[in-house]
Amino acid sequence: MTSTPFAQAGSSGDAYPPYPPYPAYPAYPAYPASPAWTVAARPVDDPVSAVLLREYLVDVADRYYQLHEGRDSTREEIEQAHAEMPSDDLAPPGGVFLLAHHDGELAGCAGLRLLDARTAELKRVFVRPAKRGLGGGAALLAAVEAAAGALGAGRIVLDTRRDLVEARALYARHGYREVPAFTEGPYAEVWMGKELG
Question: Please, where are the H alpha helices in the chain?
């Protein structure tokens, strides 16, 4: 199989075609301490975005089912999660979806959606396992904060699970603090927020 930045696991190896710049938003700069990372807005419904969103769902679902049932998630459970937690609101005018590349390779994603005129919610933060520990989380959060500012938000909030300790530590290192619950559901156990600027 040909190795390309956009090759989908299990595909014939054909690369997805390059995409033109997403016109609704500029490219957001990579975190300054990580010059190998670039982060840019892309349509949430394009095939490359879909690859990362599916990998994100598999990653968090596998961790959940391993913790609670000692097994990985099934294809049916991933399809159900995809249907129950759509990402179509991570798009203009009230949202944005970001893709991260490390040394030119597709490596991660994050999304934002406005909850109100001042508050954006952080969603779908994911770095591929092979790219973890290289500054991708920091690069994504820096780009997310720039994107939130472009949307007019002065605050970012998020919810996460208690078992996602690496994510919680990342957020805490970047100034996110626990806030009162603003969502409910089986996967919302910790709520965090950060005032911008």
Answer: 47-69, 75-84, 136-150, 165-173
Query: Distance of alpha carbon 142 from its chain centroid, rounded?
Result: 12
φ/ψ of residue 111, rounded to 5: -135, 160
Residue 196 has a CB neighbour count (10 Å cut-off) of 15
**Packing angle between helix 136-150 and helix 165-173, nearest 10 degrees?**
60
The strand pair at 119-127 and 155-160 is best described as parallel
For 115-157, how does the pLDDT look when each residue is reduced to its tens digit (9 = 90+)?
999 999 999 999 999 999 999 999 999 999 999 999 999 999 9
| Positive or negative torsion for Cα 176, 179, 182, 185 | positive
Residues 6+ apart with CB under 8 A from 145: 156, 194, 196
Residue pair 76/143 in contact by the 8 Å Cβ criterion? no
Residue 52, burial from CB neighbour count under 10 angstroms (0-12, 13-18, 19+): buried
Distance CA 75, CA 72 (A): 10
Query: Quick one: which of 6, 86, 12, 18 has its CA closest to 52?
Result: 6
Q: Which two tokens stand for residue 143?
A: 């780009």
Write down the pTM of the prediction: 0.82
